[in-house]
């Protein structure tokens, strides 16, 4: 007879493990399936966490070489120990994944080690053992989108996974795709001395961001040494020895050219990962993009089967998945789960950082919504000047009639932290005036947000 649970979660990434923990807190008997040797999914093992470790290490190196002398700090011979940098990254990953394992034990969650496949609507098989549950949650995340003609070997032509494991600084790295992942990992190796060329099919970088932010972002990255080839596509790649030769053509037609590099990073997006789940056995429906179809409560077309995170529609963000995991667990326990999709922040962890929440100017214009803009530059902020971090600005978009905050876009130091205040404000339906009248400590970077809110009404103080 199959082992039975109240809830089985397939996948232990941020959405899955949070769902499992919250359900256990609410008194359910919970199991979580994970095929990796460690918990945490892509995010903790080969995504968010290791990339941030390398971003921090490379940022420290860059500051030591280029920034500290402005503060009167002179270093001697400076060198890069990539092996130690990578080892530290591994230590960070291990600490985080072991932390999830501890939380599973604390909350009495059973870890089913192996791959899950459906054998029926409420039954799965893991390693030859059958398990049943009242509710099953698909939280299997996403994987890198392939590109025809560009065969990934994770040595010369790499996805984000391989880009996190390089054992030396490449002389030249070509990034295919000017999205978040490509620009973050490009930043790591650019700071350490690599030449970085970014090839993007569209005529702009970071297409999901507010256009003004994207333009400023590209200008800043160009100053840092990035080279951009926008409006182009890669149609082929050949590896000879230690070099990769790419065939590149204008997106709208034209003569092809070749570009050579030591490393090519393929980062054109991610797709919902359901391989091996045998969804057909359960009768679970997917959409035209392979994402699991769900209703507003994460229920699939099969009673008792649910899905959250990257595997369903919406932004592929770890914190979005976490919120969905919590909301679903609470709904299954008879409570009222809540996710406000109008207040999901996004962050690009380059330097300066880029962060956004809510709607862009382009979205407001398309929707015919009248709005006001308030902007304030970091250059006019005392703390930013003391840090020597003067690039960028905060931009608040508010409804022209009601003053309700509709979107906030920040490019500048610690933008990812600053956006939290704005997300809270939007969650509670705040106006720009509410932010403007809130006392912000001085001198802090958060005063840029306050001044941008004041600027919505045309009354910033420090500019």
Short description:
The protein has 463 residues and is an alpha/beta fold. The chain contains 14 helices and 22 strands.
What do you see in this structure?
The protein has 463 residues and is an alpha/beta fold. Helix content is 33%, strand content 26%. It folds into 3 domains: 3-143 and 271-339, 3-Layer(bba) Sandwich (FAD/NAD(P)-binding domain); 157-268, 3-Layer(bba) Sandwich (FAD/NAD(P)-binding domain); 343-456, 2-Layer Sandwich (Enolase-like, domain 1), CATH 3.30.390. The protein is built from 14 helices and 22 strands. β5 (123-126) and β6 (129-138) form a beta hairpin. α3 runs antiparallel to α4 (82-106). It is globular, with a radius of gyration of 23 Å. The relative contact order is 0.12. The mean pLDDT is 97.
Strand-helix topology:
Layout: E1 3-10, H1 14-25, E2 30-34, H2 41-46, H3 48-67, H4 82-106, E3 110-113, E4 116-120, E5 123-126, E6 129-138, E7 142-144, E8 157-158, H5 160-163, E9 172-176, H6 180-191, E10 195-200, H7 211-223, E11 227-230, E12 232-240, E13 243-250, E14 257-261, E15 263-266, E16 270-272, H8 279-282, E17 305-307, H9 318-332, E18 346-348, E19 353-358, H10 361-367, E20 371-377, H11 382-387, E21 393-399, E22 405-412, H12 415-427, H13 432-436, H14 447-456
Parallel strand pairs: 1-2, 1-6, 2-3, 6-17, 8-15, 9-10, 9-15, 10-11
Antiparallel strand pairs: 4-5, 5-6, 7-16, 12-13, 13-14, 18-19, 19-22, 20-21, 21-22
Helix pairs in contact: 1-9, 3-4, 3-6
